[in-house]
Write a structure and sequence with these properties.
With 219 residues, this protein is an alpha/beta fold. The chain is built from 10 helices and 6 strands. The chain has 2 domains: 131 residues, Rossmann fold, CATH 3.40.50.2300; 67 residues, Winged helix-like DNA-binding domain superfamily/Winged helix DNA-binding domain (Arc Repressor Mutant, subunit A). The chain is elongated, with a radius of gyration of 18 Å.
């Protein structure tokens, strides 16, 4: 069964260009297009797409507000990927707060975009490396599901106390070398902890681990 996609973009030429990318991917189908936020919310309600590719700079209501509204009415399992040229810290954090599963810049490689769509459909999160500095402030307030720290720990009880400490430093943007210095451990040990965290949180890299921790309310 193909992945059903709703494409939300206010510029007609951009919509045509993005839609044409899927011509060579028979396992994905753009089932509808929307050129403003209200239309995106309504078409999402009617069509129940698997993935919404959402621009931010939309007329009427912007893509962040549209994301919030369509996910509030989401009784199915739609995932939202912000596909945008915007790169401000407010837009990144607000998109994640609204419930977006990925934040992708429009200069992305086509094959990489298709991979992101597939993994997000399966429940993964992805943040473009160019915008990760904007999610590293632990006071950014990203948590979307508002799980308590206790709730997160219960959900991920297989993380050790040391791994929680390392995870918080990962969220703060520290490298393995910096984590090692902060915790007075070897860099090899720090790297091992990070690898264990990535595996236990079922994510692909340290950026996704940080995003998951922020969204689920650990920090």
């Amino acid at each position: 069964m193909s992945i059903k996609i709703l494409l939300v973009e206010d510029q007609k030429l951009m919509r045509i260009g993005i839609r044409s990318l899927f011509d060579e991917y028979p396992d994905m189908e753009v089932v509808a297009e929307a050129e403003n936020g209200r239309d995106a919310v309504e078409k999402s309600r009617l069509l129940k797409p698997d993935i919404v590719l959402m621009d931010i700079g939309l007329p009427d209501i912007n893509g962040i507000e549209a994301t919030k509204r369509l996910l509030e009415q989401n009784s199915f399992d739609t995932k939202v990927i912000m596909l945008t040229s915007h790169i401000s810290d407010g837009e990144v954090t607000e998109s994640l707060r609204a419930g977006a599963n990925a934040y992708v810049l429009k200069d992305i490689n086509t094959e990489f975009l298709m991979m992101i769509i597939k993994t997000v459909r399966q429940g993964a999160m992805w943040i473009d490396p160019k915008v990760t500095p904007f999610i590293k402030d632990k006071n950014s307030g990203i948590p979307a599901r508002q799980l308590s720290r206790a709730g997160f720990r219960q959900t991920h009880a297989n993380l050790t106390q040391r791994e929680y400490e390392v995870l918080k430093l990962v969220v703060d943007g520290q490298t393995n070398n910096e984590i090692a210095k902060t915790l007075t451990i070897s860099e090899h040990t720090a790297k091992a902890h990070v690898c264990n965290i990535i595996q236990k949180l079922v994510v692909d890299d340290r950026t996704q681990a940080a995003v998951k921790a922020l969204k689920e309310g650990l920090v």
